Structure formats: structure tokens, C-alpha cells
TrEMBL record:
Upper lineage: Eukaryota, Metazoa, Spiralia, Gnathifera, Rotifera
PANTHER family: GLIAL FIBRILLARY ACIDIC PROTEIN, ZINC FINGER CCCH DOMAIN-CONTAINING PROTEIN 13-LIKE ISOFORM X1
Coiled coil: 11-60
The name this protein goes by in its record: IF rod domain-containing protein
Gene Ontology molecular-function annotations: structural constituent of cytoskeleton
Short name of one Pfam family: Filament
Keyword vocabulary terms for this entry: Coiled coil, Intermediate filament
InterPro entries in UniProt: IF_rod_dom, Intermediate_filament
Stretches assigned to the IF rod domain: 1-64
Statement: the UniProt record of this protein carries the keyword Coiled coil: yes
Annotated GO CC locations: cytoplasm; intermediate filament
Any one Gene Ontology BP term: intermediate filament organization
Record organism: Rotaria magnacalcarata
This protein's record includes keyword Disulfide bond: no
């Protein structure tokens, strides 16, 4: 009975730890997603412009 009680205590402890870790993970996922969205917004227009320039140069080279 003592071993079983210790086992149950350990299971409860690990379940509590899992909940805490899951909450931390969820928090980090939210922050990372928000921050990566800001970075994308910051550079998106520049990327569109650079892709257009690459397409223009590629087309000009093909016509030359």
C-alpha cells in the first residue's frame, strides 16, 4: 500500500508538472507567432519588390 500511495503521489506530481509545462509552451507559441507575424509584416513589401525585380531581370535576360 505504501508503494501504491507513493506511486499515486508521483503521478499527481507529474500531471501537475505537465500542466505547468503545457501552459508555458502555449504561452511561448502565442508570443512566437505574434513576433513572427510582426517580422513578416515588416519585410513583406520589400520581398514583393525584390521578387518583382528578379522576375523583370529574368525576363529581360530571356529576351536579350
Amino acid at each position: 500500500n505504501t508503494k501504491f500511495g507513493a506511486y499515486l503521489d508521483r503521478v499527481k506530481f507529474l500531471e501537475t508538472q505537465n500542466r505547468k509545462l503545457q501552459a508555458q509552451l502555449d504561452d511561448l507559441k502565442q508570443k512566437w507567432g505574434f513576433d513572427s507575424g510582426k517580422v513578416k509584416d515588416q519585410y513583406d513589401q520589400a520581398l514583393v519588390s525584390l521578387r518583382k525585380q528578379i522576375d523583370d531581370v529574368t525576363r529581360d535576360k530571356a529576351l536579350a
